[in-house]
Design brief:
The chain has 83 residues and is mostly helical. It is 53% helix and 0% strand.
Length: 83
Amino acid sequence: MQKRTTILIDSDLLERLDRFAARSGVTKTSVLTAAVESYLEVHDTAPDLSFLAIGRSDHGRLSLDGRSIARREAGLRPGPDEV
């Protein structure tokens, strides 16, 4: 699903974007999307977790299992209580 947003950009950079998009036969949206994806690929070091949950349980083992799963999903080593 795509969503619309507004950005503030220097007029010279916007003119370069306009020329590039026209010359390449692509939309400005596709250029900006590719640029943001490329930037985040390099700079966003947070792991993509398949889930994140916060809760409380009277069953102590469930919280240990949840922490173990979250650490594994994040690519971290097991904690001392998970060995």
